[in-house]
Amino acid sequence: MEREELPLDRQLRQEILFARERVYRFGQPTPLERLHLPGAPSVEIWVKREDLCPVKAYKWRGACNRMATLTPGEKMRGVVTASAGNHAQGIALAARTLGVQARIYMPRSTPRVKQAAVLQHGGDFVRIELSGDSYDEAVQAARADEAENGAVYVHAYDDLLVMAGQGTLADEVVLSGHGPFDAAFLQIGGGGMVAGVSSWLKTYWPEIEIVGVEGIGQASMKAALEAGKPVSLDHVDLFCDGSAVRKAGDLPFQICQHTIDRMETVTNGEVSRAIRTLWETLRCISEPSGALGLAAVMKNRAMLEGKKVLVVISGANIDFLQLGRIAQSQGSSSQTSRTLRVEIPEQPGTMLNLLNSCFSEIDITDFQYGKTDEAIASPIFTITADNSSILDAVSDQLNANGFKWEELTSAVDVDFRAIPLRSDQLRHPAFLRLDFYERKGALHDFLGQRISGNANLCYFNYRQSGERIGRALIGLDFPSSYERDALLMSIPSHGDGYRVCEPVDDETRRRLVGA
């Protein structure tokens, strides 16, 4: 008897049931863990830890489910796919387990940690082909391979069996006993996970609110829902590389237009803050796309009071260098921050006066200054506090003391630490490498105790590192070489709140001043 054609949503639910019998040949269920969000004790957050699965990302479910359905003839032809990294690892895991050859096309910019993981999981059964600078270009190359060689193409998200495999993570949530949930915040790339998970959650908990979450610079599903069909974005932000998809999948879109209740977009800074929160609460290191859901929860914490919400940590395959950049970014801070440029007279003692009058009780996490004018100095401070009202008080203090200032938060030159310094404005400079102990007042104490007389601050480069000490390179200018040499000979190697690592040698000084 010929099988009756089912509507797509019914087919998907049925295939999720079938996927139960397949995916656990390749991996085990992942835990659901409670997260206590600082500042929001009344929001009950449960985290699905897909970062703890075999490939450190949920993508193994869909890839393995699809690969498990290959016929003997298809296995002989081999598999080809395109992936930004996590789907590729799932294909590699399944290829090795099933003894199937797979060619995997990845963008040239794919983090090395993901490339290495693909080879580790697939061994001799996989071959990586780096092609193009984006996921879409890798897809084109993989499709050309499919047409030329007859291999079976396994799509990363626009495939019913792949979507069904991803839906098994929702099945584990339902069976966990921690539900029902009031809302689920689900990140979206091409839409495979949100389609499978939202369909299954809505089946058992019809009242659950499904919130689709995308990065503000890669909101392809939001664009599709607004247009009534998948559309291509002109530009895709790659910070959340695992969800950087130019166009939502056709099949996921057909599901999502019925299951998603609303969409949220989050900034890279909000994602960075969520990554930090995961580390500080669960000791979980998430890749950027893996933290999208929590970023949206944190953004909407006031609206979620008294509710039970679900988020998915969808992956932990982050390049170590990117992790360092995120940790150093202002967006990752749990505190509020502002960056200000303040004009002061270019005279000895004015910097100390500024600190005394306006910054005495504030945490300075970044300080950039280079002398460029004989009369006016324009130091740049990044200041942080637990709430914005404390930072607003600094603005009031600056105004009350007659300082001219401007807001430079997120300014490009500040982010890239472009610190100008004019050598023709200097007479007899000296540069020191200092370590400041990370406490309020350490900088103030150094300037007040050690920079006296005719010494004038001409350069300062300091950024808080998260360690117990912060490293700084400072420049002092003197009217005479005698005064300069006297300070260098007399300054103690250790003082209250600081230690002098070393004076900068003449060659480094010449590079700094361009002389």
Automatic annotation (TrEMBL):
Residues 338-410, 430-505 form the ACT-like domain. Pathway: Amino-acid biosynthesis; L-isoleucine biosynthesis; 2-oxobutanoate from L-threonine: step 1/1. Belongs to the serine/threonine dehydratase family. Its cofactor is pyridoxal 5'-phosphate. Keywords: Amino-acid biosynthesis, Branched-chain amino acid biosynthesis, Isoleucine biosynthesis, Lyase, Pyridoxal phosphate. It catalyses: L-threonine = 2-oxobutanoate + NH4(+). The keyword Secreted does not apply. SUPFAM superfamilies: ACT-like, Tryptophan synthase beta subunit-like PLP-dependent enzymes. GO terms for biological process: isoleucine biosynthetic process; L-serine catabolic process; L-threonine catabolic process. PROSITE patterns: ACT_LIKE (PS51672). InterPro entries: ACT-like_dom_sf, Ser/Thr_Dehydratase, TD_ACT-like, TD_ACT-like_sf, TrpB-like_PALP, TrpB-like_PALP_sf. It comes from Luteolibacter pohnpeiensis. Its EC number is 4.3.1.19. The lineage of its organism: Bacteria, Pseudomonadati, Verrucomicrobiota, Verrucomicrobiia, Verrucomicrobiales. GO terms for molecular function: L-serine ammonia-lyase activity; threonine deaminase activity. This is threonine ammonia-lyase.
